[in-house]
Automatic annotation (TrEMBL):
<feature type="domain" description="Peptidase S33 tripeptidyl aminopeptidase-like C-terminal">
    <location>
        <begin position="107"/>
        <end position="195"/>
    </location>
</feature>
<protein>
    <submittedName>
        <fullName>Alpha/beta hydrolase</fullName>
    </submittedName>
</protein>
<dbReference type="InterPro" id="IPR013595">
    <property type="entry name" value="Pept_S33_TAP-like_C"/>
</dbReference>
<dbReference type="InterPro" id="IPR029058">
    <property type="entry name" value="AB_hydrolase_fold"/>
</dbReference>
<dbReference type="GO" id="GO:0016787">
    <property type="term" value="F:hydrolase activity"/>
</dbReference>
<dbReference type="Pfam" id="PF08386">
    <property type="entry name" value="Abhydrolase_4"/>
</dbReference>
<keyword id="KW-0378">Hydrolase</keyword>
C-alpha cells in the first residue's frame, strides 16, 4: 500500500512483515506511555488507517536505546547455551507471536564470538547487604517474579512492586525518590513508600485526539472508569 512517509510526507510504499509488526508492538509494552497507544494503533489499522502504525515502525528504527552488540554478546554467551529445545518450545507456546522472538538469537548466537562463564557465575548472590529491588507489575520482560527469585538469597532486601509501571521503573519520580532515600539510609525495610499511592492508573488512548479510558486492574476482570 502507498502511505505518506511519516517524516518526509512523500508517498511511499509500505510493506511490513508479521515479525516486524509483532516486534514493533512488543517494544511499546516496555513503557506505560507507549503501551497506552497499542489498542488504538491496532484498531486504526483495522479501519484502514495505517499511519499510527507507520509512526511506531519509524520510531522503532532508531533502536529504542538497545545496544544490539552488547545484547548479543551477553545473551549469546551467558544465556543462549543454557536454553534447551524444550525451553524454546515452552516459551513459544503463546498467542503473541509464538517463537518469533527467538529468531534473532538463533541466527546470531551460533556465529557470535564466544566466551563461557564457569558454573560459579550462575550461582545466586547470597550477600547479606542492604538491597532494594524494584519491579513494575506491567513489565513484559523482567516481571516481579524475577525480583522475588533474587530476593530469596538476599536476606536484607525489600522488594517493591510498583503498580501501573512497566520496564523502566526507576524513571518515575516516585521510584527515584525511594531509591534516593535508600542510598542515603541503607535501610530497605523502612522507606517512605507513600508516593506509590499517587502513581496514576493505567489509561489507554481511545481516539486520535488523545481521549483516554482508565482501567482499574486491581479488581478481578478489570473495571472501566
Amino acid at each position: 500500500m502507498n502511505i505518506a512517509h511519516p517524516r518526509l510526507g512523500t508517498q511511499t510504499k509500505f510493506v511490513i512483515s508479521e515479525g516486524k509488526l509483532l516486534g514493533t508492538l512488543r517494544t511499546q509494552l516496555y513503557s506505560v506511555a507507549t503501551r497506552s497507544i497499542v489498542p488504538l494503533v491496532i484498531h486504526q489499522a483495522y479501519l484502514g488507517n495505517y499511519m499510527p502504525l507507520v509512526g511506531l515502525v519509524a520510531q522503532s528504527e532508531s533502536g529504542q536505546g538497545i545496544y544490539l552488540g552488547l545484547l548479543f554478546n551477553i545473551a549469546c554467551n551467558e544465556d543462549f547455551p543454557r536454553i534447551s529445545a524444550e525451553d524454546f518450545a515452552q516459551d513459544a507456546n503463546n498467542n503473541f507471536g509464538g517463537g518469533d522472538s527467538h529468531f534473532g538469537f538463533k541466527m546470531v548466537c551460533p556465529i557470535w564470538p564466544q566466551y563461557r562463564p564457569d558454573e560459579a557465575f550462575y550461582q545466586p548472590v547470597t550477600a547479606n547487604i542492604p538491597t532494594l529491588i524494584l519491579s513494575g507489575n506491567l513489565d513484559p520482560v523482567t516481571p516481579p517474579s524475577n525480583g522475588e527469585y533474587s530476593a530469596k538469597s538476599l536476606p536484607n532486601n525489600h522488594h517493591i512492586v510498583i503498580e501501573n509501571a512497566a520496564h523502566t521503573v526507576a524513571m518515575s519520580t516516585c521510584a527515584s525518590d525511594i531509591i534516593n532515600e535508600f542510598l542515603t539510609t541503607l535501610e530497605p525495610k523502612s522507606l517512605d513508600e507513600s508516593c506509590l499511592e499517587e502513581v496514576p492508573r493505567e489509561s489507554f488512548m481511545t481516539n486520535l485526539n488523545g481521549g483516554d479510558i482508565h482501567i482499574d486492574v486491581s479488581k478481578q476482570g478489570g473495571k472501566e472508569q
